[in-house]
Structures are given as structure tokens and as C-alpha cells.
Amino acid sequence: MTLRDVTLAVTPMVAQFWDMARIPMIRKDNIVTKIEKLHREYELLKKGRYRRSEAQISKEKDFEVLLDNLFDVAHGNALTMMTNQEDKEFLLAQREPGRRGRMGGVDSVLAAQETRQSLRLEKAAAFSARKQEEAAASSSVAQLESSPSSSSNTSAVVSDEEYGAVGGASPAKRAKRATKNIVSPALAATLDRTKLTDRSATYVLTEAARCLGQNVEELNINRSSIRRQRLKHRAAMASKIREEFRSGTPLVVHWDGKLVMDLTTKEHVDRLPIIISGIGGANCSPSPSWAVARERAWRQRWSRPWRHGESRIR
């Protein structure tokens, strides 16, 4: 037999004692590696058994002490995984030099406790199986459909009330979801204009409906529903604007910077008016000053939250 064959045969013997002590172990392949390592140390000492130097004698004594100590194959987290305090104390005592303590006979207290636990598990399994059989039988009775008999025209109908009276389990009622939407196009535009997030809009609309005496459980107020309604109204408004803007006439866009007097101060500010002209009239868009426009753009850029890892450099 090879060394590996012998090691594989010895490993179950070692594991048997650790199982009796109720101590979690490392994997079986790691136990095999540890036994082979101990055997290699023995072979190295065996080669120098005829040299009686101080180093050789010291190595032999250390190996004898190693054999007297515990051949520890416990799991690295064994003390954390174990629940019995006596088993923890026994492992700590065995790890001391000389392996203090030893395993006694059968623990009658623990054996009785395990017997009671196994009986409880068996009773629970039997009770669960009996309940499943009763539920299957009751469901098969409830699903029977009435059919006309060849001898008589009577039919047996089991109603839900009668079925519940004999002890059958009534089907669970599902909670009704609120379907009343309150987000109108005007309200969606107001939320966009005030820059309220969907979650903030949920809090505001819920408290507003409660203050107005409405039953908030009947109103479809949640972040997902508000988000869907806002997207729906935005798409409808965009389609409406595109339809109304189709004038069929060519348009001309004029823009140019100009220094004009500011309305609030006596200074001149640089503005950029934009004029759209065509057949039938012209329209001038609001033209804020360059300083105000830059300030708004700066605030809008730096006031929003930044995601982790996103660069602020543009």
C-alpha cells in the first residue's frame, strides 16, 4: 500500500473521534495532508537516528512532545460554530500541553435532550403531512362541479358558507390596490415646474389629500405611479406642442447680443434676444442677461447630487 492509501484509511478513524466529541473539523483532504506532513517529519528524523548529536536529540524530543499533544484537525471557527459550552471547554483543554481531560461515557442528559428533540421533529413532520392531506382533500371537494344525475335532476352544490361551517379553510382575500390616479396634466406640470422629485411628491400629495379629508388608501399615491403619470403627461404635452407648432410656413430665427439697461439696477447688461418671425407675426423669447444665465447654469450643474465615481470635470 502506498502512503496515500494508508492515509485515506486512517482519516475516517481520526474523524470518528472528533465526531464523537461533537467538534467541527476541517475538510477530509486537509486531514490527509496534515497526516502526510507528520509522516514526512518522522521520516526525516528516522534518517538521522544514528547521529546522536544535540540537534538530533532535541528534534526527537520535540517530536515526542508533538505526539503527546493534540493532533488538531478542528475547524478554524470551531469555537464560534459550537453551541455547547462543555464542548468548547473540552476543545480548549485538549489544546493545552498534555491534552488535559478525556472523553467519558455517553452523556445521558444530552442524549435525552436529543431524543426529545427528534420526537418533536417527527411529530411536527407528521402534523404537517396530515395538514397537507386535509388541505388537498378539502380543495378537491371545493372544486367539484355539480352535474345532473341520470336518476334525478337534483344537483349537490356546496357553497362557500357551508364549506366554512364544516371547518374548511376559506380562501385568503387579496388586498385591493388603489386605482384612483390624482396626477393630472396640470399637477404634473406643477411638479416639474417646482422641481419636486417623485419621492418628495409622494409625501406632499399624501399629506395634502389627508388634510382635504380624502381616504389616502383609495388614492394611487406612490413613487412608481407618480413617475409613470409624469412621464405619460410629459409625452402627451410634447406631442401636443409638436402638433400645434406645425404652421406650414417658413420661419426665421434672429439673435444678436446687445447692451441694454437692466430693470433692477442702473447698469448695462449684455442680453441675447431671440426673435422668431414668419408670416403673420413674430415672437420674442425671454432673454436673461449673460451673468444671470451663467449663474443659473452653474447652480443647476453643482446643486444636483453626484453619483459615486462620476467626474465633475466637463
TrEMBL record:
**Which residue ranges are recorded for the region named Disordered?**
138-158
Superkingdom in the source lineage = Eukaryota
- Name it: Uncharacterized protein
Which species does this protein come from?
Chionoecetes opilio
